[in-house]
Design brief:
By secondary structure, this protein is an alpha/beta fold. The chain folds into 3 domains: 7-119, Winged helix-like DNA-binding domain superfamily/Winged helix DNA-binding domain (Arc Repressor Mutant, subunit A, Orthogonal Bundle); 175-375, Aspartate Aminotransferase, domain 2 (3-Layer(aba) Sandwich), CATH 3.40.640; 393-500, Aspartate Aminotransferase, domain 1 (Alpha-Beta Complex), CATH 3.90.1150. The chain has 20 helices and 15 strands. It has helices at 23-36, 49-56, 60-73, 91-95, 107-111, 118-126, 152-164, 168-171, 180-193, 209-220, 235-243, 260-266, 289-302, 325-328, 360-369, 379-387, 390-417, 438-441, 446-455, 485-500; strands spanning 7-8, 14-15, 76-79, 83-86, 203-206, 226-231, 247-252, 272-275, 305-309, 334-339, 351-354, 421-422, 431-436, 461-462, 476-479. It has a 7-stranded mixed sheet with strand order 5-11-10-9-8-6-7, with helices on both faces. Strands 12-13-15-14 form a 4-stranded antiparallel sheet. Strands 1-2 form a two-stranded antiparallel sheet. It starts with 6 loop residues before the first strand and ends with a helix. The model is unreliable at 1-9 and 94-111 (pLDDT under 50). Bound molecules: pyridoxal-5'-phosphate. Pyridoxal-5'-phosphate binds next to helix 10. Residues 21-89 form the HTH gntR-type domain. Keywords: DNA-binding, Pyridoxal phosphate, Transcription, Transcription regulation. GO terms for molecular function: DNA binding; DNA-binding transcription factor activity; pyridoxal phosphate binding. It holds the Pfam family GntR. This is GntR family transcriptional regulator.
Length: 504
Amino acid sequence: MPRPTRKAAPLGLVLDPAASEPLHRQIGEQVRHAILERRLAPGQRLPSSRLMASELDVARGTVLLAMDQLIAEGYVVAQAASGLSVATDLPDDMLMAPRGQPAGSTAADRTAAPSLSRRARTVLRDATPGFGFEEAPIAFPTGQPDREAFPFALWARLLEREWRQPSWTVAGAPHPFGHAGLRTAIAAYLGTARGFTCAPESIVITNGMRQSLSLLAWLVLDPDEAAWIEEPGYVGTREALALAGVRAAPIPVDEQGFSVERAIDVEPRAKLAVVAPAHQFPLGTMLGLQRRLELLSWAERHEGWIAEDDFDGEYRYTGRPLAPLRALDRSGRVVYLASFSKLLFPSLRLSYVVLPDALVPAAEQRMAMVPARASLIGQGALARFIADGHLATHLRRTRLLYAARQEALLAGIERHLGRWLESAPDSAGMHLVARPLAAIASGFDDRATTVAAAQAGIAASPLSACYAGRRRRHGLILSYAGTPELEIDRACVTLARVLRVQPR
Ligand SMILES: Cc1ncc(COP(=O)(O)O)c(C=O)c1O
């Protein structure tokens, strides 16, 4: 019987062109295996994609597709000068004790600081440049709402009222899902503000989006199963999935946002889609109704799950918001995630997940094991803040404030930065992305610009840091919500000084 044509190649890869599995996935899986078995050592250089393609007799694009996926998953790193190499800190090692080679056995390990673990050195190397945590920037701090607008005196009174004579529910043994009164207040708020009903018993208060998403991923995926994430997207999403020990498959978004059709092409076996349909982060797209229905239909047909990150859906300035996926969900496959970080203040560390009923019992067991649940200190006060209508008032006030700040930023970009950057109005959100003009785009380095801006007191964030894969667009994420209008104009003048002297 004739054997199928098999091609042997560098790294010991054997491809089967007759197999139903596409070639790029065969390459990716075999390289991942070789890395996990330490046949390819951490830090080891990989042959160039051109060489691999010619020896495997496949198109170079096929090898690049496989490598992009491995880069996104953290198994391979791309360095401009030296090409591709095996990551020194493998994703699997982040989650379990190192196997095989002990740390310090590769050349890269030996030359680096002996007192740090490999994973610590990797996060140091990949850290997004910018502001130190102690300094208050002059403008554009990422994820920060306006501090002046929040009624802190009222907040202090609400805290005091509760803590002078704390009840068992706040000072005793906490429920693993958090304060019952807060969960009731959130359920009522979601009914009026977001148009869907849910039982307070299905709401879990968490200490942030990462905890919410890693809880969900832990509940519905096993280690090494995959979740689709938006590319570019929020770094916290990737970190949360890594915490839960599952794989992230980045799906490039287009002008209409996330496409389930494209996602199936990239990773057909994913069981979870993590999306921000109301306002994609950081690009700002609103997912259209057709795409929403396609995603819901995928979840229903394949018993998949959808994590709906509604991180700033409250701030919509023009146009009608679409109903959240959760409001359209007929089969109990959508998990709604939201946070008070951007609505009130981020150090509150209160976020929440609305679970489908089917996940509640297992989530209770899981949350009981979680050591760092959300603190109960602010939860009772927040329950009163919502129930007494202060949240609605605060949102009405800040919506007007932020709409004016977005206009001020657009004007500042046009007036002072128009030689280098451009941006467009966004109908929602708390930030804008300023992209380099075509004439300078090829030489524009958003990380270097961010570092230089930070030295001048401006807290811009690099767009390229939102990408998991190798194809990254550069730009500056400028969060206007926490910066008064007058400061916005001055900050644009400062940023112009920074850009004028940036090498290109
Ligand atoms: C896209 C996105 N999701 C969620 C969050 C909320 O995160 P957390 O609740 O951990 O503060 C943020 C905050 O910046 C965000 O940008």
